């Protein structure tokens, strides 16, 4: 059985030196286009695969970007990671994706693992902005770092989403439909998106008093939360803004159990629910973001940092959110 092709095989096939072939693999811009094309054609024909580990030892570059997320089952996390991976692949980089859960000690271990693999850069979502261990671990990195939508006391490039304006627009829409008993069903995660959305909701409903409520659900409880109590009794909510697909499913289950109609009895707006909202009947009105743009921007900024080095000024991008009106909201019944 024939072994895998080597540089010597390519050299015999093309009549060029081993050094030139190595340059085609590692620094292709230093090789004449005709020669490079001939060598690359021979590599494809013979099935030559460069030894990335050996190249990493020579160049101190692995052409791999680490991506750390707290929950890969979260649609927004997965969509951003996928977009970043595609943008990185277009530039010749691979991605090593790690889903660490929401426990800080697991995130620190995952970060150590990515450092052990000598990734060239890091894209990081973290589950808590207040854990001292994770903040110190990030602060001690020498690897180019891009932080996604978190407010951290460290020097790093960042990509933020602007959550407030779309939340205020969603509340104004519900209020224009006559709703006063409005619930924002969210997680209790101590992270920027949750904080910004809660602040905007509170500002937009401040004059409604106790009619407008924020209900926080612990991360581990999201998949099992029972929402029926929110929509029954004399103070039942007539509208709900719900954060994430898992909590949206809880709301839909409650609607079914209580025999409610949407939007006749209850108006629903989802947040980051693009994976399920279009398949529901009626289709769910939602606050959404351009996850592709977030991922592509993160990839571009981390690659720019790799190219330019650590000394340049830190960069930050702020990308918008917007409301998509569909059929799940209607006038309040008084």
Automatic annotation (TrEMBL):
UniProt keyword Secreted, yes or no: no
Matching CDD domains: HTH_LacI
Domain called HTH lacI-type: residue spans: 5-59
Pfam family, one: LacI
UniProt GO molecular function: DNA-binding transcription factor activity; transcription cis-regulatory region binding
UniProt entry tagged with the keyword Zinc-finger: no
InterPro entries the UniProt entry points to: HTH_LacI, LacI/GalR-like_sensor, Lambda_DNA-bd_dom_sf, Peripla_BP_I
Swiss-Prot/TrEMBL keywords: DNA-binding, Transcription, Transcription regulation
Domain of life: Bacteria
Entry-linked SMART domains: HTH_LACI
Record protein name field: Transcriptional regulator, LacI family
Organism for this UniProt entry: Devosia enhydra
